[in-house]
Amino acid sequence: MSSISDPASFPEPVDLSHYLSRTTRAREASTIKRFYKYFTIPGIGQIAGGTPSDKYFPYDTLEAKVAHPNRFRPTPNKPLDPPPNDPPTAPLAASSISPRKHGKDDPPAARLFVPHDSGVPDPLRMIDLKSALQYGTAQGYPSLYYFIRQFTRNNLHPFVPYKDGPEVILTCGNTDGFAKTIQALSDEWFEGHDPVEERPGLLVEEYCYMNAIQTARPRGMNIVPVAIDDEGMCAKGPGGLEDVLASWDSSKGRRPHMIYTVTVGQNPTSGTLSVARRTEIYALCVEYDVIIVEDDPYWYLQFPSSSPSMADFKPVKSSGFEFLDSLIPSYLSLDYQGRVVRLDTFSKTVAPGCRLGWITAQPALVERILRITECSTQQPSGFVQSMVAELVMGPQSSTDPGKGGAADGSGWKVDGFVRWLEGLRGNYERRMSAMCDVLNANKHLVKAGRRKSLSEVASDDEEWAVVEKMIIYDFVRPLGGMFVWVRFNFSTHPLRKQVPAPRLAQALWVLWTTKPYLCLVAPGSMFAPTAEIRDADAYNCFRLCFAACPEDEVADISKRFTDGAQAFWRIRSKEKIDKLLEEEDKEGEAKTDAGMGMLMGVC
Amino acid sequence: MSSISDPASFPEPVDLSHYLSRTTRAREASTIKRFYKYFTIPGIGQIAGGTPSDKYFPYDTLEAKVAHPNRFRPTPNKPLDPPPNDPPTAPLAASSISPRKHGKDDPPAARLFVPHDSGVPDPLRMIDLKSALQYGTAQGYPSLYYFIRQFTRNNLHPFVPYKDGPEVILTCGNTDGFAKTIQALSDEWFEGHDPVEERPGLLVEEYCYMNAIQTARPRGMNIVPVAIDDEGMCAKGPGGLEDVLASWDSSKGRRPHMIYTVTVGQNPTSGTLSVARRTEIYALCVEYDVIIVEDDPYWYLQFPSSSPSMADFKPVKSSGFEFLDSLIPSYLSLDYQGRVVRLDTFSKTVAPGCRLGWITAQPALVERILRITECSTQQPSGFVQSMVAELVMGPQSSTDPGKGGAADGSGWKVDGFVRWLEGLRGNYERRMSAMCDVLNANKHLVKAGRRKSLSEVASDDEEWAVVEKMIIYDFVRPLGGMFVWVRFNFSTHPLRKQVPAPRLAQALWVLWTTKPYLCLVAPGSMFAPTAEIRDADAYNCFRLCFAACPEDEVADISKRFTDGAQAFWRIRSKEKIDKLLEEEDKEGEAKTDAGMGMLMGVC
């Protein structure tokens, strides 16, 4: 690889056009540029384009009350002593974030203002309704596109080791971004219609985000799980990436040429992939010509308090921000061949309802996705594009009547956006800590009232002495994201011999929904990409999310969860299980099916 | 067909599942409903879904300054005397719309306000940021979805003659709606890969909106043009729909099973299809099992001043509004089999940058498109959904702090939205009138200074007498939309024998871009769906749009257009043509290619 000091000497990204789908290849490139000269003739009367008059838009201005970037308190960028499973409660206590109230208790806010006409002539600095609410370009609203492009190239991923670096295109969120990526890079395939040797495959984590599967599977893609450990996808070992690729059985289709992966705070297991592991996997992708689609909505939610070693990584090139430098970098930072397609979203940094994100990849791929965008979404809504642009960029000249998200009326700028991310990470890290502390304190079954004196140990009642020390579930404190993945050990349940473990798991799920436990958790089967994994293992696992419930209830709901688990391990009658599952048995299907996945499929 | 008084006796829509694409068939239906009961348990602790906390969205409120529904002056719903090509100038004069200025001259406006929390518990009446900026359902934001569904079923299309009527789903505009429709209803096909008898076809107007073609063609679809007349698609006669379907040559692929059509103010020809023609075409679609995809962004822009006969139509069932009742109804009003998929958009009623529209069709098809939406766009942006919902619906209870678009703080309501449409129609009808009056007054070539006395007629200078009366172009005054389609007759040009007509057309296009004419028009070739049409006829035509330029310049730009045409017909030297095309000749390709289409492809 070339010297960091001379990016022009980086290798060209490799040509991936052999992986373009037939549809994507057939899309015509735009020869737009040669016509610009006519459009910019001074005084030209425009009666060619079919755009409506911006004078007829009913919105004269868009405005908002918006947070200052420092609304929330950050957590430190470096891990703290003592070690993670006994963390200090003070710095991570969830106490100091003022809950939002309306009226005089409102947290300080700025007045966002998007004018009808900014008076700014440069499209890259123009934020106004006459342009944002008009037809636009598929790259994205020019000013926002340009901000995101600079932020991506200079701050998020300052080191991408191929010539001239990546290009970006705005999307309507990561589900849209993934749908376009997969449409660009794989042909539809159908059993009985297309030859098996053409069947494309998608490599995924053994437990993964099902919306991606639901996008790929109806296209006929082979969904190929790869073994995971606490970090995420395994490179080596049985079922790891190398094993899957090297031993590929081509009677099942083509050797998969794409990975879909969530590398930080993986959904659902919360795995966070180290740089060492990324390096191993990237090398395999080079060897086997595999494209990595990296979907990283939780990337900036990395929790140093969970891992003293995580922050040992030192970036090749600084982003200019201590916070960003402390994050495990994207696969892009290793991508000397241009085989990484990264999906970013505002869903977790601003709001899911934005439906706003972006793809970062080598320019030739982005150009093809641009063509797909022209004939589908065209661009994200101008309402969100202009309001996010104004939030971060603010007015662009002394006469621009726009107002941004900073206290002085300017935009958040990159500094403010990074500060906002730090505050969010702080909030989620405190929540994570609150949940994990409760989970950790209650994972052993304690049979109060049946404790025996030491002299009784090894009597005929020995079994109880064992049970009293039993861990009924375990989990790894997440290094990132919004989830805790809890794995139960049903072989320790008193009814293990009378009731099959999947049925115990189902009954446990129902018990949690009853008083006094009252909590709704996501069953592991929702995240099993294949029927084999669902039937063999998924019932042991549950995904807990510390992001959705009110902040001051995280600990309490977590306690109800652990109380429910404890109570379930005290059930010694099969009839009680049957009673819990009475309604479910009537309805015929397992509860933990795709339906629940759909219900939460967007999350 | 059944009695209008008993919609329950209407026939069930026909089963169109034989036309579903393989991908669309493979999408799993959601079994979501059976889980609702768990989500609604009082006090349930939600740690299942992976949604972020709405307290962490940086937008506390969204606000706007918005037009009152009566900002613009309507035109009459009934045609006026005298006849269209000599219209009265007074009632349609473009004089009384105040141009938008900032400051004290601003037109009256309301203050829109979307609160963080409306306090309204019913999702169908909830308009606030805690819900709109959260993950949502693929149908659309519930309150807006429900408003649009009612408006569509009760007001826009009060009579749809199949049992229980149509369903709707929100889209990110009509390009998105069409992309999803075509994905639902046709398989991808590729020469050399798939058997020719599987090749799907799309019937389109002889000149049509190219973005639709650019969506369909890369999927391998056969683009099949159907002859048009001034109304739009022809049912009978050579090249009409019946002729194309009855004489289908299956060596070119399957007989086409879909029509893509713009039925009102067609883009580019501005044709507007009568009810009689719709009835003929619908009957053919029943006979040949064809699905009609009706894309009607200009539907409410129907111009009675252009057509004394247009408003003769009497609706089967009233919408409750004189304005809506006066409009030629959608194909839906004839759709007793449920084979119409209608695409509606806010692009021309609110703003193109909304990226917001909806599909109306039989419920079984809408359900499949819902599945596609779940794995692509998910939902339109919550920014635009909440702001449009608040505009039209306003606060939903006495304690809801929201504010809508009406002067008293309530929403526009259906009345206000219809009034807004009437005002827009008024604006565009006045623009149309201004342009067409100029075009009509200047279509004859007048050779001033060479006029001869009557006694000289039939002398050896006879040719000039003929030229003096010559029509150099013609057009039909549009019954709807934003365009005038102008057809030139290059066989009357003095250089007709030295320069091929396509080259004359190209030179004319360039002449218009030069001083003093300075106008940019869309060449007909941009709208030719096949190379045959492009080469045989398209060069004769140009599309003029009266919507994009400033209102008070419509007449002036139109005059520059006619001056340019007149001047071009006075060019008698081939060298002048060569000089005009010098730069174009250098660049090699014809200007009127796909590039320009891309540039204006979204319009």
From TrEMBL, chains A, B:
Xref: CDD domains: AAT_like (cd00609)
UniProt GO molecular function: pyridoxal phosphate binding; transaminase activity
Highest rank taxon of the organism: Eukaryota
UniProt cofactor(s): pyridoxal 5'-phosphate
Biased composition (Pro residues): 76-90
Gene3D superfamilies assigned: Type I PLP-dependent aspartate aminotransferase-like (Major domain) (3.40.640.10)
Pfam families: Aminotran_1_2 (PF00155)
Region (Disordered): 69-117
GO biological process: alpha-amino acid metabolic process
Ranges for domain Aminotransferase class I/classII large: 131-397
UniProt keywords, alphabetically: Aminotransferase, Pyridoxal phosphate, Transferase
Family (UniProt): Belongs to the class-I pyridoxal-phosphate-dependent aminotransferase family.
The protein's name in its UniProt record: Aromatic amino acid aminotransferase 1
